[in-house]
Every structure is written in C-alpha cells, then in structure tokens.
TrEMBL record:
Its cofactor is heme. Keywords: Heme, Iron, Metal-binding, Monooxygenase, Oxidoreductase. It comes from Oppiella nova. The keyword Oxidoreductase applies. Belongs to the cytochrome P450 family. GO terms for molecular function: heme binding; iron ion binding; oxidoreductase activity, acting on paired donors, with incorporation or reduction of molecular oxygen; steroid hydroxylase activity. Pfam families: p450. InterPro entries: Cyt_P450, Cyt_P450_E_grp-II, Cyt_P450_sf, Cytochrome_P450_3A. This is Cytochrome P450.
C-alpha cells in the first residue's frame, strides 16, 4: 500500500538527512539505472551536499562524499562497515565481492603484495606501460585515426600492467592483441 511505501521512504527524513525524492517500488534505483551514475551522483552531491540518503528499491542507502568521513568509515570504523552491499549474482571469492571471513582471508593473502615499498617499485613499471599507451595513441593519430575504442584501450593497458607487475612479462597488448596472455586474460575478465 502507499502508506507502507511512505513509511519505508521516511527513513532518511526521520534522521534529518536530505536526498533525492524516491518513487514507489523503485526508490532511486530507476533513476540510477537509466542515467550515467557518475553524472547523477555529481548532480546529487551539488544539490544535497557531502552526505545524502538514497533508496535502492526500499532499502535506505547512505552516500558519503566527505574524504575525512570516508577514511573514518573505511579505516578506523572498518569493523562496523566491513561488508559492501551484495550485487546481482551474490557473493564470490573476488575481493570486492567477498564477505566476512572470505574477505578477511583474501585480504590477508593479497595484502603483502601492496606494501608501500612494493608499490613504489611497481610505479616505474606502471609508468612504462602508460608510456606504451601514449605511444600507441600517438601512432594511431599520426595514421589518421580519430576515434578510439576506449574500453579496448584501457583493457589492454590494464592487462599490460598486470603482466608487467605480477608476472614480470612485457606483452605489449596494443601491438599484439592475439598474445595468448592477453586472450586468456580477456576470457577471465569477460
């Protein structure tokens, strides 16, 4: 009934947090689905400030755009906010979608890879991969190309960075898109 939807959508109003007006059944989800999310979130940030409330269907969701508060949530108060919302398809053993003990175990395995010392060592490798992207774009432009398939370009860059940093292998995906490392990696990510 309409009154039950009003009650469901009064959560943020009762807590004096503003946000975009939800519509019955969908909340703000329909608008999020039909518009480019970054542009819509920027619009809401300008209209409602650094903290605003949304409804994904009837579930209240708080959006935070204050760097200090984000740091407090993600670092200091992590034990309170440890799980991200579940997405379509449920949970998995991939770090961004893992939950609770699975996430903790995966993080413990991955964490030693991303120490500041190791990240500093990776910087030169990543920078070199970035130079390869720029060289590839320069070559395309000098050959008269005026459009670029951005997803393909960024996928190739990502694959090169992973191959270079994780496997000490230079694959140059731009020059050789049929490299077995590239094609097998694309199958995994797709």
């Amino acid at each position: 009934s309409l009154s039950s939807w009003r009650n469901a959508f009064s959560y943020w109003k009762d807590r004096h947090i503003c946000g975009p007006k939800p519509i019955p059944i969908f909340g703000n989800f329909l608008r999020l689905s039909l518009n480019p999310r970054p542009l819509l979130e920027l619009e809401w940030y300008k209209n409602y400030g650094k903290i605003y409330g949304l409804y994904i269907v009837s579930k209240p969701t708080l959006t935070v755009a204050d760097p200090q508060l984000i740091k407090q949530i993600l670092v200091k108060d992590f034990n309170i906010f440890r799980n991200r919302p579940t997405v379509h398809g449920g949970t998995s053993l991939v770090m961004p979608r893992a939950r609770d003990e699975d996430w903790k175990r995966i993080r413990a395995i991955a964490n030693p890879t991303f120490t500041s010392r190791k990240m500093k060592k990776m910087y030169a490798l990543i920078s070199h991969c970035c130079e390869d992207v720029i060289d590839s774009l320069d070559k395309d432009v000098s050959n008269g190309m005026n459009e670029v398939e951005l997803k393909q370009l960024m996928s190739a860059y990502t694959m090169d960075v992973i191959a270079c940093c994780a496997f000490a292998t230079k694959i140059n995906t731009y020059a050789d898109p049929n490299n077995p490392f590239t094609t097998k990696g694309a199958k995994i990510t797709n």
